[in-house]
């Protein structure tokens, strides 16, 4: 009898510990769900195709989505505050066109790249000023910036501008063999992973990051606590614009040219990847690591459909349907966790 009682006590204590863990780490549940989805997709693709989990495909997963990963980090900062930035794709195109135009005139990349970053940050600052000082909704403010950036890209040139600068092309063409079996990294991939690392550290180990979570959780409470709400939200949009400018550099290196229509729909891809990674659109909950996983899920979907040889229209339809399923599943997980 005493043995059964001791066993029941241990079982009850274990159950209470698991319950406390779920309550304290509920925000990580969507991230784990996205990770499970990614693993299932990779294993399923390997079983179906037989040659999916190869060094070439896995290395290309980061290579092909480095620019999207950078955009997702900036978007995570914005969404955590409860905002949105629809201008990132157009800003990426505009900064790419501007940089390519400057390089074509003979300006060195050591000057062109900082100019691209500064212009991206300035576009983000403009969105933040509209939102915070003119009380414009983030959706409308960033939509206006999207149209403005796209128009500016066409003002630079109506046609594609080829990039021949060795430093820019080096970012994409260099293959760094870091592990046996054929795995490789490129400078663009290293830049993207560095941005993820810096973003994660800033969010979790700085006052700025903690203020972002506080604003997203309850902006009014954050104001009553004396937190710098206006300054933080303004800087968040600057970070998003800066990431868009850096993505312009990476995407220009990736394609070897710039075109005014680059990045159309990229803002929606970015938002989808961030949400898949577990960041709530209402703000206050999410992680940069989750956004990185969301980008890899999105990239894996595109790669699988490419392996299947599906038509481009079906590719977009399939991606949209799968993203919708992933978002609904994660929302159900969060709702169930909250009830518990």
Summarize the topology.
Blueprint: H1 2-24, H2 29-49, H3 55-64, H4 66-80, H5 88-104, H6 109-133, H7 138-156, E1 161-162, H8 166-173, H9 187-205, H10 207-217, H11 219-224, H12 229-255, E2 257-258, H13 266-276, H14 288-308, H15 312-339
Antiparallel strand pairs: 1-2
Helix pairs in contact: 2-14, 2-15, 3-14, 4-9, 4-12, 4-13, 4-14, 5-6, 5-7, 5-12, 6-7, 6-12, 8-12, 9-10, 10-12, 13-14, 13-15, 14-15
Describe the structure.
The protein is mainly α. The protein has a single domain (58-339), classed as ABC transporter involved in vitamin B12 uptake, BtuC (Orthogonal Bundle). The protein is 77% helix and 1% strand. The chain contains 15 helices and 2 strands. A two-stranded antiparallel ribbon has the order 1-2. Helix 4 runs antiparallel to helix 12, helix 4 crosses helix 14 and helix 10 (207-217) packs across helix 12. The chain is globular. The model has no long low-confidence stretch (mean pLDDT 88).
């Amino acid at each position: 009898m005493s043995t059964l009682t001791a066993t029941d006590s241990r079982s009850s204590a274990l159950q209470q510990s698991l319950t406390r863990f779920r309550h304290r780490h509920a925000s990580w549940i969507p991230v784990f769900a996205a990770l499970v989805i990614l693993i299932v997709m990779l294993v399923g693709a390997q079983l179906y195709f037989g040659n999916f989990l190869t060094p070439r495909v896995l290395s290309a997963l980061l290579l092909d989505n480095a620019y999207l990963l950078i955009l997702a980090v900036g978007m995570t900062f914005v969404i955590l505050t409860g905002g949105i930035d629809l201008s990132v794709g157009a800003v990426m195109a505009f900064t790419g066109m501007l940089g390519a135009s400057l390089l074509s005139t003979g300006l060195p990349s050591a000057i062109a790249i900082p100019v691209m970053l500064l212009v991206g940050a300035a576009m983000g600052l403009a969105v933040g000023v509209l939102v915070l000082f003119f009380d414009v909704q983030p959706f409308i403010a960033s939509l206006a910036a999207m149209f403005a950036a796209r128009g500016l890209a066409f003002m630079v040139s109506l046609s594609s501008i080829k990039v021949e600068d060795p430093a820019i092309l080096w970012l994409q063409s260099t293959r760094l063999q870091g592990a046996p079996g054929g795995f490789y990294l490129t400078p663009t991939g290293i830049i993207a992973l560095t941005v993820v690392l810096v973003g994660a550290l800033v969010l979790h180990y700085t006052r700025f990051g903690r203020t972002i979570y506080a604003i997203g959780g309850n902006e009014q409470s954050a104001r009553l606590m004396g937190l710098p709400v206006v300054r933080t939200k303004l800087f968040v949009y600057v970070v998003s614009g800066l990431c868009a400018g850096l993505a312009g550099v990476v995407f220009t290196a990736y394609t070897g040219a710039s075109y005014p229509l680059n990045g159309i729909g990229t803002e929606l891809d970015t938002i989808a990847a961030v949400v898949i990674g577990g960041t709530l659109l209402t703000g206050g909950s999410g992680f940069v690591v989750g956004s990185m996983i969301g980008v890899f899920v999105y990239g894996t979907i595109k790669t699988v459909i490419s392996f299947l040889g599906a038509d481009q229209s079906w590719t977009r339809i399939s991606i949209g349907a799968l993203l919708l399923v992933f978002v609904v599943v994660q929302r159900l997980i969060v709702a169930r966790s909250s009830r518990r």
